[in-house]
Amino acid sequence: MTTRVSSSPDLKVDQVTLTVIDNYLATTCREMGIAMMRTAYSPMFNESLDFSCVLFDKYGRMISQAEFCPSQIGTIKFTVEWMIDELGPDVYKPGDVIIMNDPYRGSGHIPEHTLLKAVFHKGEIVAFVANCAHLAEPGAKAPGGLAGDATDIFQEGLRLPPLWLQREGIPQEDIWKIIFANHRTPKTTYGDLMAMVGSLNVAERRLTSLIEKYGLETYQNATNDLIRIAERRMREEIRQIPDGEYFFEDIIEDDGVLNIPYTVRCKVVVDDDQITCDFTGSSLQAAGPMNGTFAVTASAVYNALMHLTDPTIPRNEGCYRPIHTIAPPGTIVNCEFPAPLVGGNTELSPRITDIIFGALANALPDRVPASQGGTSCCFLFGGAQPGSGDLYSHFHFEGTGWGGRPTKDGNSQIIVINGNCRNTPVEVFETRYPIRVESYRLLEDSGGAGENRGGLGIERIMTMEADSITVSAIFNRMTVDPFGIHGGKPGKNSGIYFRRKGSKDWETFSNAFGTTSPSKFSNITLRRGDQVKIIAPGGGGWGDPMRRSSERVEADLREGFITPEAAEHDYGLKAELDSDGNWNVTPRIGRKDKS
After folding, report:
1. Per-residue CA distances from 9 to 6, 19, 103, 441 (Å)
2. Please, which pLDDT band fits residue 168 given cuts at 50, 70 and 90?
3. Of the candidates 176, 200, 232, which is a domain's last residue?
4. In a domain, 299, yes or no
């Protein structure tokens, strides 16, 4: 996305130069990501793209970002601020690389590691470059790191405060050894962390070249101007939302430890050019890992509002300034140490974004979509490779249906809006791990019916091809539907099921193994020939289904997106195949056909 910079009398740099520098900075962030993708070892990097790349000025203010993982782009703002504040502004030397992954210092969850490097010009710090990425193995009680039944942060992996990974370009062997000793797959960890270091080096070179070309004064004036522009334009966008208080809430059905629901409640207050999202009234923090820190909650708020405002606004510190978050400490949206929280970034974060959408649906009817699937469908597994005995560990997530939109159907089988990642290709499953994918398909009738239908979820069936594979999961929306808006119907639920070798029947993991939750558990041992079925939910529908045109319903029937039963029940159209195999639909009484 190319950003658009407008002129103003208070700016110190001309509009053309500002636009060039702004897009240079964003392209630098994208190049950082490409460097990681091409050099990392794990599919989390080179397939899933579960990382973010960001630039900061010497004060720790974000000056640019790339379009990778939005939830990390929000949390890294807090992470880098914490790292600079805790270590101090003057301790860095050229070649230093700092590592940190502590959620109680701003990180999203333990698997996400942030690396930070200072950029120098004539001996002075002029910028910081940073990336955040999800390591496939963080040293938790469950392979892959997301233990669905964790009861405290200590079960979720090795927690690192800000530490020197490199000093003046020299690796700090003691820190590396501690990390390797705690990770099941140290070779992969090494490759991924070095890819992150290389990414920082790319950014350092690009910023150095930029400053050499334009001069330090122009560079600093430009970044200050870009922050002012972003703030001004975001305030202009917020002014377009009618002033008022808007409410919405949703339910997290359980936390993996206690079989009780948790409410996430939000009041969105729009006051001229500022917007506040107040989560007062949300449930107390969960016993299991469905909690989020303040950084996770604020990041989800930012993400929601970035999706509802002009995408050409420069993405930097300025666009966040008019957006405020209130999250009472000790609640599920701002948990306190040592609460478990590894599922907050994958599950709570997209739900918060949907809640903001739900609250603003009537205020912005021409912009807001219905609910996305609202879960990352986290499926984790690990074990020893048959033959070599080498340990492996992997975190897989599924795409869901996105909500119907004011002008279009929702996208099908797309990672939650906070992730912007890709799932694990079948070829990677079958060549790197002892798992065979039997089927992988869009699930008919899973998208919520509407004038604009919700996107479809999927069904994936996998067979274990090793004598022992340990699996874990964190799913949501198994009992609470993805909501529709403006008369649209909800999307279908998620699910994860088990079938023992030789059996014809699918069971929940609760029935088969006695887990407290059917959708959140850890360290279940499966045997060769056992199968797992994953169902990702559909998105909610937008608008009255009876206003969907007959032609669009016929197209859905042809594509297999809906069944004849759904055409009749949800859309009021009796569907029949003619002699040529074409669908013909006949309106029923009460249908308001829209041609």
Report:
1. 10, 16, 42, 55
2. very high
3. 232
4. no
Q: Alpha-carbon distance 101 to 481, whole Å? A: 33
Same domain, 466 and 566: no
pLDDT exceeds cutoff 60 at 512: yes
What angle do the packed helices 564-571 and 550-559 form, to 10 degrees?
150
Instruction: For residues 54 and 196, state if they share a domain.
Output: yes
Axis crossing angle, helix 15-39 with helix 216-239, rounded to the nearest 10: 90
Tokens of 214: 């334009």
Q: Is residue 590 predicted with pLDDT exceeding 70?
A: no
445 and 559 belong to one structural domain: no
Structure tokens at 373: 């699937």
- Rounded Cα gap, residues 394 and 137, in angstroms: 7
- Per-position b or e across 59-87, b if 16+ CB within 10 A of its CB: ebbbbbbbbbbbbbbbbbbbbbbbbbeeb
Report yes or no on 487 lying in a domain: yes
| pLDDT over 70 (residue 128) | yes
User: CA 198, CA 108: separation in Å to the nearest integer?
Assistant: 22
Residue 327, pLDDT score: 98
In a domain, 127, yes or no: yes
Residue 41 confidence (pLDDT) above 80: yes
Can you give the residue range of the structural domain that contains 567? 548-587
Q: Say whether both 572 and 446 belong to one domain.
A: no
Q: How far apart are CA 189 and CA 113, in angstroms?
A: 11
Cα dihedral value 76, 77, 82, 85, nearest 10: 140
The answer on 555 and 534 residing in a single domain is no
pTM of the predicted model as reported, rounded to 2 decimal places = 0.94
3-class secondary-structure state, position 236: helix
Q: 232, 251, 281 — which closes off a domain?
A: 232
The answer, yes or no, to whether residue 595 has pLDDT greater than 60, is no
Tens of pLDDT, residue by residue over 254-313, are 999 999 999 999 999 999 999 999 999 999 999 999 999 999 999 999 999 999 999 999
Number of domains the chain contains: 3
